[in-house]
Each structure stands twice: as structure tokens, then as C-alpha cells.
Amino acid sequence: MVNMAGETAALSRSPAVQSRQPGMTAARASVADPGGDGGNTTISGGSVYAGSVGATVTNDGSTVFLTAVTLQNVSAVTKVSSLTVTNASGYGANDLYTDENGILYLYLPEGATTTAAETGSARYTGSVVTTSDAGTPLGILAVASEGAPVIVTASLPDGTAGAAYSQTLAATGDTPITWSKESGDLPDGLTLSSGGVISGTPTSEGTFSFTVKAENSEGSDTQTLNIEISPATSPGSPPVITTNLLPNAIVFMEYNQTLSVVSDMPATWSMVGSFPQQQPGVL
């Protein structure tokens, strides 16, 4: 069941009505005396073209009229997950699909206005008013515009001089969106692409403030951002020998002592001068 603001009604396929199109849709309705035998036929799945029934179509006793609504750029049978119709209180619709040309066939009361439809991939908006005129009212719902860009990136992570940096800016709005630097300075070594990516390898430390601009066919937006670049990481400090005292040795007795050192990386020992029977790092 598709719930709608104001709700709506649509016709669907019926075994008793032979002129039907796969994928066309609407809700339950009755065809008054379609076969001339004094009875009514309930339509409860699919959809029916105007003129194919040859009789008045009603919903709970009220006359409804066929309205064809085209979804812009739809060229295959497509499920409609949401439909917005005003001035159609009390109506509902289910299992809505377009035909292969993107057209929805809806049976609605006179004055009902179809204003929006949603599929799994897009939203369509416009205004299609149902009338009692002969023929099929035909209107188009166009792909809804998301409008001018709104930048949603409010801050950027810090970086380090000499280390690669890459961050992608984000904005809502119609695509494509083109990015540029409006004012200020990016850190030395970093650039901003038209796709909104700040990248490169910063070469100097400091705090850098700049304003970026996002622009599309509907307008633009700006945002001031900061990046703090820290000094390059130190390659390491010299080793510090922490052994400053050794126990005494006894002549002709084996002697073994391990020296200690504090170092940011593995240390290599060597002898300065001479010492009998010495091994590197072991006495």
C-alpha cells in the first residue's frame, strides 16, 4: 500500500476488462455496465486506458477520471514507492508501476492534483490536475531539483609537514558541483581540485585559513576552513648509554656483563680502544 498526502486512487488490471497494459496502475474502482448486461465490474490490478472501458468508472459511487502522469526520463517499467495527490481525500493506491514509457495511469476525482512521485532512485515533482474533459489529461513530473549547494564540511583534520594529506569536501545540491578556493591560502604543497579534494604533501608548518566555494547551476555556497600543519616528525635522538659502572673482574675468571642503552631505534655497539677478549656489547 502506498500512503499519500491527501491520498489517491488508481485503477488496476482486471480479468473482466481486456484492454489493459502491463505495469499500468491504480486502486480499486468499478466499471458501470462495461458489457451492457446491467452489472458492474471491479478493477483490482494493472490499469486501463481511457476509452477502453466504454463506461463510467466510479470509486465508491463517485465518478473518477483517467489522468496520465509522465515521470521525466523514465523509459522502462518502474515501481513508484510514493505518490502525493491533493484534493483526493479518502483514496488510496497500491502496487504502482509506470508503463515502459514512464507513464502512470491514475483514476482520480475531478480537481485532484498529483504533485510528487518517488521511485527507488529519484523524486519527481510538478502539478498534474485531473479534469472531466474528454480524453486523457497528460502532465509531466520532472526530476526534483535539490537546489544550490550547501557545504556540509565544517572542519578539516590537521596534517604534518612531509606527510601525504588528502580530504574530500562534501556538499548537498544538484550535481555536478564545482569547487574552488575563494580566498586565503592553503598549506604549501596542498591543492584543491574542482572535484573538492584537498591533497598533496604539506611542506611547512603553521595554521592556514582559507575559504572554499561550491557552485552548481542553481547557485553557490562558501565555507571558511582551517588546517593546522605540525612540524615534521624528528628522525630520532642519539642513543644514550645508561651503564656507567661495571663490577670488578677476577684474573682468569670468566666475566660477563651486558651494557644498556636508551635509543629510538636499534643500537649497534663497537669498541673504542682495546680490551682483552671483548665481544660487542658484552664484556
Describe this structure in words.
By secondary structure, this protein is mostly beta strands. It has no helices and 23 strands. It has strands spanning 29-32, 40-43, 57-59, 62-63, 65-71, 79-80, 82-86, 96-97, 103-108, 113-118, 123-129, 138-143, 150-151, 159-160, 165-168, 171-172, 178-184, 190-192, 197-200, 206-216, 219-230, 240-241, 261-262. The protein has a 6-stranded mixed β-sheet, with no helix packed on it. It has a 4-stranded antiparallel β-sheet with strand order 2-1-3-4, with no helix packed on it. β20 (206-216) and β21 (219-230) form a beta hairpin.
Summarize the structure in short.
Helix content is 0%, strand content 37%. With 283 residues, the protein is mainly beta.
Q: In which order are the strands of the major sheet placed?
A: 7-10-11-12-5-9
Rounded mean pLDDT score: 73
Largest sheet: 6 strands, mixed
The helix count comes to: 0
Helix coverage percent of residues? under 10%
Order of helices and strands: EEEEEEEEEEEEEEEEEEEEEEE
Choose one word for the global shape.
Answer: elongated
**Could you tell me the strand content as a percent range?**
35-45%
Give the termini distance in whole angstroms: 88 Å
Label the structural class. Answer: mainly beta
Tally of DSSP β-strands: 23
The Rg value, from CA coordinates, equals 38 Å
Low-confidence stretches: 1-41, 43-54, 279-283
What's the multimeric state? single chain
